[in-house]
Amino acid sequence: MPNNIIQKEYVRQGLLKMHKLWLTLLPVAAVSLVYMYFLVLNDRPDIEVPEAEACQRLLSNLTQPQKAELGRCCNASAWLAVTQDNTPLGSEIVYDAYPSKRLKVSSGLLEILPEKSPFQESPYKTCAVVGNGGILRNSSCGSKIDGHEFVIRFNLPSVDFPEDVGKKSSIVTVNPSILHKRFHGLNGRRLPFVKAAASYGKTWFLIPAFSYPSNSEASYRALYALQDSASQSHIFFFHPQYLSSLSKYWHDHGFHTPRLSSGFMLVNAALELCQHITLYGFWPFSLHPDGHSLPHHYYDNVLPNSRIHIMPKEFTYYVDMHFHGVLQLHLGRC
Predict the structure, then answer these.
(1) Which of 72, 164, 190, 266 is the most buried if burial means most Cβ atoms within 10 Å?
(2) Which domains does the chain possess?
């Protein structure tokens, strides 16, 4: 009987009411503070959060020279994806989330890798990085998103809201957990995955096949499925060296998190690959800036694993990037 603890003497009614009040006010306060932060453009308030202070120091001069520093550290154009050029026969792949595990590159693995990085033709003039936040629901941002030269999306998102999120996709990330949960690791029929991939049109899919050893085989099967179906889309694997370098870069600059989200990873890649960047759907709060409640995603209300990703911390970095002209963070309707 789950309500007994409320009805009996285990919790005093006065404390219970106070607890409920705080649970209601804290999200409102968080949203209000961030919204005020956006309104006060010329007098940035102090935020007593170590990560935000570190981000402020890093981004206060994040112009072309600082972007060059990110390029020297990580070099997304050459290292974002595993290729024959950066991972030759006989070399070792070190799993970024499991560094004690290594994989020697065999001829069989080499032949399924692209010869060169597909991102060497950058920079792209305008890029939309489209998060899956509930703030996109009823935003009418679809046509604006599709107007960008290059569009990045995450984790095979729903395509059922074109008016709000658009249809165009240049990169779509695929978390291997999705391959396991939605497509049973592609151990049986592969057609459902092929059909899901086809809904994004001609696209590059990015999979972190070499973050955890348990994810590699399902990632290979996803690649084979598209190749066998003569799909015009292609699957590339995140290079674990790029992910490790990026994680170390931000750790050295004061951002400590168990693992960067795929959104944060690709925003950083876009800083190198794109001239002008606009973020849509990056809002990790349950209330809209105007006060109404939001689902976590624009297509469902499944919450993230807070033990792995710390979305509000990442959001403070996006806000600072916005204020310093590094990118544009779009909130609300278009």
Answers:
(1) 266
(2) 1-45 (no CATH), 49-329 (3.90.1480.20)
